[in-house]
């Protein structure tokens, strides 16, 4: 393989002098719509676990209900994914083509629950806490102007 004298870092050439059109880092990576970065391997591991939750069986029904109704009430027993998955789907809906702006606010019964869920959901969404996902509890706010999904306790109005 010969090296051209006028090459740039991004140019890769074969012996024939032709540039390799198939060469490119990250061409097969999926991009996170929330932060614009490629998903980590941890994201895919957590996604596989998330898809085993029973709430995933009704995802399309929920998304249809969300799109066609002003109010959607979700109930379910613990460990179904309703507290972690539903808010993520709502946040995705806010970022969809129909709604370029919006915020999802999830109330929890106590402040520790709000913080724990925010941390878990940020991990599942592969984003940093305090940016796209955050929480607000009495005397503490971990959010910014880019926060799309916010967990709060019942005392925050």
From TrEMBL:
The keyword Translocase does not apply. It comes from the Eukaryota. InterPro entries: P-loop_NTPase. Keywords: ATP-binding, Helicase, Hydrolase, Nucleotide-binding. SUPFAM superfamilies: P-loop containing nucleoside triphosphate hydrolases. One of its GO terms (molecular function) is helicase activity. Signal peptide: none annotated. The keyword ATP-binding applies. This is Pre-mRNA-splicing factor ATP-dependent RNA helicase dhx32.
């Amino acid at each position: 393989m010969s090296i051209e004298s006028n090459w740039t870092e991004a140019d890769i050439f074969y012996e024939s002098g032709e540039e390799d059109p198939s060469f490119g880092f990250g061409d097969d990576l999926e991009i996170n719509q929330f932060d614009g970065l490629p998903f980590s391997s941890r994201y895919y591991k957590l996604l596989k676990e998330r898809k085993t939750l029973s709430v995933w069986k009704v995802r399309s029904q929920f998304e249809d209900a969300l799109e066609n109704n002003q109010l959607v009430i979700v109930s379910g027993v613990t460990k179904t994914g309703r507290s972690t998955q539903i808010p993520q789907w709502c946040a995705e809906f806010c970022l969809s083509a129909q709604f370029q702006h919006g915020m999802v606010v999830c109330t929890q019964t106590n402040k520790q629950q709000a913080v724990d869920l925010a941390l878990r959901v940020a991990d599942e969404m592969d984003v940093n806490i305090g940016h796209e996902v955050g929480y607000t509890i009495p005397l503490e706010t971990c959010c910014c102007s880019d926060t799309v999904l916010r967990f709060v306790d019942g005392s925050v109005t």
